[in-house]
Amino acid sequence: MPSSGSMGFWWQKKVFPLPETCPLTRRLIFPIGCTGEHPYICHGFLGRQILDQEGLPQAFGKVAERHTGAGISLANIVSNCLPLPHRDMVPKTLEEKIICCADKFYSKSPKKKNQPMTVESIIQSLGKISKEHARRFALWAEELGIR
Whole-angstrom Cα distance, residue 36 to residue 8? Predict the structure, then answer.
């Protein structure tokens, strides 16, 4: 299991031997928008707003917006009356999927902050939120060769 300080290297060396120039460096900016008066679930799209306003390429904002949960579908937003813009926020590119999956191994919950996360524990946790999220993460874990 990777340590919290080695996420990028773990993904680059163990899962995909990506070149150093790969825009996976966007992983450093996706938590933007995590603080403030809005519910935590809003941090992805708020991060995108900030990055877009700063003039960064759209791909940066999409990484920020699409990493929450295992992505959030428009149907999920509408059916659960989530305080989010009505649009699909599910990762589409390989990079978005990698960053979304990597984020799940590092809990932001104070109770779970130092607990190691496994694929199985992540699927179980996501299943409590949405079976759709759990299935999507399980498919990505298989696709990416994460065990």
Answer: 27
